[in-house]
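Record format v2
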Amino acid sequence: MKKIKLLLLSGFLGAGKTTLMLSAANHLRSKGLNVACVTNDQGQQLVDSKMVQHKQFPILEINGGCFCCRFEDLTDEINQIISENEPDVIIAEAVGSCTDIVATVIKPLKAFHGNRLQLAPLTVVVDPRRLGEMYQQTTNFAEEITYVFRKQLEEAQCLVLNKVDLMEEDDIAYLRKQLNKDFTGIPCVTLSAIKDDGASNWLNQVLHVSNSVDKSLIIDYDIYAQGEAKLGWLNTSMELYGNIKDAQSLVNTIMLELIKRFKEIDAEIAHLKLWAEDEKRSIKLSAVRNLDIPIFFDIHSNNWDSNKLELLINARINAETDHLKQIVEDTIHLVHKEFNLEVIIKEFDCFKPSRPVPTYRMA
Ligand SMILES: Nc1nc2c(ncn2[C@@H]2O[C@H](COP(=O)(O)OP(=O)(O)OP(=O)(O)O)[C@@H](O)[C@H]2O)c(=O)[nH]1
Ligand SMILES: [Mg+2]
């Protein structure tokens, strides 16, 4: 039986996993291969899934916990996508606050499903600015979050230093040197996942290589759980009704307002994503640091007026949930008043990820 290739992406929130997954999926599709994508989150209402659907790839979503804690869901869903879409390659993105994937996902997949899945080396995507902050000890994140970031790097079987377009060559050379020193023997690919064909270097590195590493991470689950619990997680979806003259500018205003308010309480943004759509168009904005201005527009849509807009907000912030909730609620209220829009909240979920309890852990 021909095995289906499974490429697993890990790496911290905002590092560029979804961007790389979509770039790789596009590349493979252009070569005539069937690709399916897997998104994963602690909550529901995911901007990432909207992105995958927008690019028209088959998608499966594992909600309400990471792959390791929802291992049976992951394998059930993989079975389903295989029978419905017959993919040649599946690309799966783990939750950005998750680690210990070799022991809790890769090894169990190899043990129980190795006859039909060919697992590639575990790839960890890195934002070089976050990596620089770790080395220079200038991060604004709680120590326990940096612990998780570091553990993600430690279990990489392939490192992707992404977003090189944002960096000076010297800085990239310095970071590569540090990675080579700290993670000797681990291949490190530098690329820009947002550029056309940015993923091809990575695919060359992992697509035809089977996962052969059996070393599991040494990790303290108490600190890991504390690190995850330092992050406030908020997913909300709503409908906005009224005379929306310029949807892009409206969504931009919401984004800037949220960033301003998080800065005011010194709450570091890990990833703040907004998605807006009506029946014809959609737009996505992301900020992955408090310093992130201007914001990335992943899907452009200029001069866009509408009477009804659906809006998703996904926020992962180093903040207490009551602060996070208050800031998002206040911002929505401001939109209602300043833009004279009726706002109907469909879902509103704000929480801290609970302690990871993997279904399997193979040391
Ligand atoms: N300049 C630049 N921006 C990038 C690159 N890759 C990703 N980004 C941007 O970084 C932001 C985060 O990218 P995502 O792909 O959503 O990151 P992620 O790792 O999937 O984030 P989570 O799902 O929250 O863990 C988006 O605004 C992307 O457009 C890159 O190579 N260069
Ligand atoms: Mg993502």
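The longest strand covers residues 232-244.
The mean pLDDT is 93.
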